[in-house]
């Protein structure tokens, strides 16, 4: 658990772990030089439970560096990540162990419960994001499922995943500290190169808090958003031997993700009152957009068809109209936006 200025939430997050019905675990907390009371809260808890180890980073370098530091202290066979403002159900680790105790699974992916909180801290909306119970044990089915999970989205997250520690430690997998966002996706892409058998679980025991006062991607990291999300698309495409080898459904799924990312990137620039016409032209002249034009989409809804047709259209005024609609809903009806954005 990386911790930085989480004094409002960290004790509840830690207690949800210590209250697990499965007790044979270690909790490694890395405080990233918090300047509130977070470190002392963690230290106080550690004094009363020897399963808790608190490490303090020498300097504030972000969650990626904090997680890398935690790897130096890992002794267990499997690794689970929990964020310092989230919670897990009491049977989360017991369910996780039930999947990995036969030592045949390299990775388990769970669903989660997204919980949206108002600026006053009250929960306003929650939604279960679930996976179908299934094992994937061939390279093609694993790659296809990686894309399907990201549509939810559940692939890129760390905290809904059980990792085999030996893969991470023996292969020297570390988080890229240059990424301020999407370092989790980048880590997962590299980890999944070594996954031979993956279990998807229908269990949803992780509570992922999305707080209104921190939903700031429209202004934070705005310059990097488009490049980082195009990185996702390229990584998915490159995980296959060639574009021609990708089945129609997976290709359709990848480029529906692309559609969503492009609209979101344009919307973020619009929200910041940045000029977008040049940006749209750059998108349309990119290699990815050239592939996008030729993709045959299958099993898509009317909403998806309309958004794809407009993005492919030469009439930029249509794109602007959609973007203004998205911006209005995102700003004035954020919980409706959370439902509709999928």
UniProtKB/TrEMBL annotation:
Residues 1-126 form the Glycosyltransferase 2-like domain. It comes from the Bacteria. This is Glycosyltransferase family 2 protein. It comes from Megasphaera hexanoica.
